[in-house]
Amino acid sequence: MAKFEVIFYDKPNGSEPAKDFLLSLDKKMRTKMLRTISILADNGTDLREPHSKFLGDGIFELRAKIGSDITRVLYFFFVGHRVILTNGFIKKTQKTPKNEIEEAKKCRAEYLSRKENLT
């Protein structure tokens, strides 16, 4: 049984950016990223590079690479052994684009405020 539950972040409008991103990838890369997500589910907060990297402010990136193609899916941890996948992108530069990190932070803040309002 997986130690961590992996969930796609859903925007207030119902869209799931990380899921949409995964579905947009070619079969080989999608398979590799899904395998990496499975490793994340098994290892959770213990997962380190090359699979995962902490970016700051509670945001991590999940990493997959085939040849020169590099994809990233950003995520954060939530109470109760949950991993929330926020958004993904194809990496073109050395540094993770700031706008992608900002998007993940916005998703995280919105998710946390939504969950606090439920209790």
- Beginning-to-end CA distance, first to last residue: 27 Å
> What does the radius of gyration come to?
14 Å
Strand content: 25-35%
H/I helix tally: 3
**How many β-strands, per DSSP?**
5
Low-confidence stretches: none
Describe the largest sheet: 5 strands, mixed
- Widest sheet: strand order? 1-5-4-3-2
Shape: globular
Structural class: alpha+beta
Give a structural overview.
This protein is globular. The model has no long low-confidence stretch (mean pLDDT 94). The protein contains 3 helices and 5 strands, in the order E-H-H-E-E-E-E-H. Strands 1-5-4-3-2 form a 5-stranded mixed β-sheet. It has 119 residues and is of the alpha+beta class.
Q: Can you give keywords for this protein?
A:
3 helices; 5 strands
List the helices and strands and how they pair.
Blueprint: E1 5-8, H1 17-24, H2 27-43, E2 52-56, E3 59-66, E4 69-78, E5 82-90, H3 98-118
Parallel strand pairs: 1-5
Antiparallel strand pairs: 2-3, 3-4, 4-5
Quick recap:
The protein contains three helices and five strands, in the order βααββββα.
